[in-house]
Amino acid sequence: MTGLAGMPAATWVAAAFVLGLLVGSFLNVVILRLPARLMHAWRRDAREVLDLQGEEAAPPDLVRQRSHCPHCKHPLAAHDNIPLFSWLLLRGRCRHCKAPISIQYPLVELLSGILSAVVVWKFGPTWAALAALFFTWTLIAAAGIDLRTQLLPDQLTLPLLWLGLLLALLPLFVDARAAIIGAATGYLALWGVYWIFKLLTGKEGMGYGDFKLLAALGAWMGPMALLPVVLISSLIGAVVGVIALRARGQDHSTPIPFGPFLAAAGWVWFVTGDSLLSAYLHFSGLR
Q1: Higher pLDDT, 117 or 100
Q2: Half-sphere exposure of 180 (CA within 13 A, CB side)
Q3: According to the model, what pLDDT value does residue 275 have?
Q4: CA-to-CA distance for 255 and 23, rounded, in angstroms?
């Protein structure tokens, strides 16, 4: 099978993998720097509201400042910033101070590369693939930030939500009616669970970022995808959460971010939902 301009499909998939590695490098920057910049902005706004004196230096932005070693602060040369390969060649240590480099960097880059390749294999060299790549990269960044900080920034979830609604006007994945109902249902479903849990226990079981993320998934996939996404994410979250808490020696009251599990389940259903549903109906005897 050949793709656009006569290029083999395998070429497009390979190109998507390389592009995913490059974007994954930027996603690492977003995961590490965006929360710090948000915290800085919130503290600055709080000082203005409370009329407090003092300023603090702004953290590096997402684009202009060069990457550097978090330990010795030495700027990274271009050959030390090649996605995945530089980490392998340096054996996971800074060239200058020999401090260990977090495994997060190659993992995010590799994940971005693999998922990008799967997306292009699924959708081909189409506008749908381009939109799906943005969907994939945003979910990776959101999941990474939530995993590190238990924050799901509006700067990621809301653009994903609005883009899903706008794409439904074409329509690209679902029509406008399904996207609107999916977005509203996704938000209200978790909002309702949040308030029921809070009224019964007096505790907050999840954050508002989870509502917005599920609303975004509903905008991209429609309301019929929400139940399997929530079920898959809850199952994976329960299993992984128990394992992680026991490995760390923590009790069940320790908060665990739900966003990464929502993002993972949403991406899986987005790419393979039809196949998973057909397999379930086949094995259950309903088809």
Answers
A1: 117
A2: 4
A3: 81
A4: 30
